[in-house]
Design goal:
Blueprint lengths: L1 H14 L11 H30 L8 H23 L6 H17 L11 H7 L4 H13 L8 H33 L5
Helix pairs in contact: 1-3, 1-4, 2-3, 2-7, 3-6, 3-7, 6-7
Main location: membrane
Subcellular location: Cell membrane
Protein name: ABC-2 type transporter transmembrane domain-containing protein
C-alpha cells in the first residue's frame, strides 16, 4: 500500500506538470532505491511482529526467528516489486488503498487456511498463486503453527523467489516504459 500511494502521488504530480525529481534517476536506480527503502522498513516491522508482538500477545511461535526471517526475505521482495509495478499504473494515490482493501479478503480466503481449498474454483486458485501473500501465508502457517522445517516449505519459498523475479522484471519494464512516455515531455528536474 505504501509503494502504491507513493507511486500514485507521483503519477498525479506528473499529470499536473509538477517538477518530477524522481525522473532524474534511471529506472534501474529508482527500482533499486525504492526496493531497498521499503524492504528495510518492512523487514524491521516484520521483526517486531515475529518477536516482541508475539510475546506481548501470547501468540505461540513454533518456528525459530531465522526460519521466519528467511521466509520473509523473498516475500518482502516479491510484495515490494508487485507494489512498484502496480504503482506505475495507478493514476491516483487513493487507488492503492482501494486495491489493497478490496483484494485482501479474497487473498485471505484464497490462501486456503480459512476456507477449504477444495471449495475454491480452480481458476481462482490458479490466479491466487500470483499473489505473494498466498504462498507466504501457507508457508508461515506450516512453519509457525504446524512445526514444519524450512526444508518442508522450500517449494513455497521457491515460488516466492520466482514471483520476486517476475514482479521485479515487470516493475523494471513498467518503470522504463513510463520513463520513455513522461520524461521527454516533462524534462529532467534537478534539485
Amino acid at each position: 500500500m505504501g509503494v502504491g500511494i507513493l507511486g500514485g502521488t507521483q503519477n498525479e504530480l506528473a499529470v499536473e506538470g509538477e517538477p518530477i525529481y524522481w525522473y532524474s534517476a534511471s529506472p534501474a536506480k529508482l527500482l533499486l532505491v525504492r526496493t531497498i527503502i521499503f524492504f528495510v522498513i518492512y523487514t524491521l516491522l516484520s521483526l517486531y511482529y515475529y518477536g516482541p508482538a508475539f510475546k506481548l500477545y501470547d501468540i505461540p511461535r513454533l518456528a525459530n526467528i531465522s526460519g521466519l526471517t528467511l521466509l520473509n526475505l523473498p516475500f518482502l521482495l516479491s510484495a515490494t516489486f508487485l507494489g512498484i509495478a502496480l504503482s506505475t499504473v495507478l493514476p491516483r494515490r487513493e487507488l492503492a488503498t482501494l486495491v489493497i482493501l478490496l483484494s485482501s479478503m479474497p487473498i485471505v480466503f484464497g490462501s486456503g487456511f480459512i476456507w477449504p481449498r477444495e471449495a475454491i474454483p480452480f481458476p481462482v486458485l490458479l490466479l491466487m498463486q500470483f499473489v505473494p501473500a498466498v504462498p507466504a501465508i501457507k508457508a508461515f502457517v506450516m512453519l509457525n503453527q504446524m512445526g514444519a522445517t524450512f526444508h518442508q516449505i522450500t517449494p513455497l519459498v521457491t515460488q516466492l523467489i520466482l514471483l520476486a523475479l517476475f514482479y521485479g522484471i515487470l516493475a523494471y519494464l513498467l518503470l522504463e516504459k513510463k520513463f520513455k512516455t513522461i520524461q521527454p515531455a516533462a524534462g529532467k528536474a534537478e534539485y
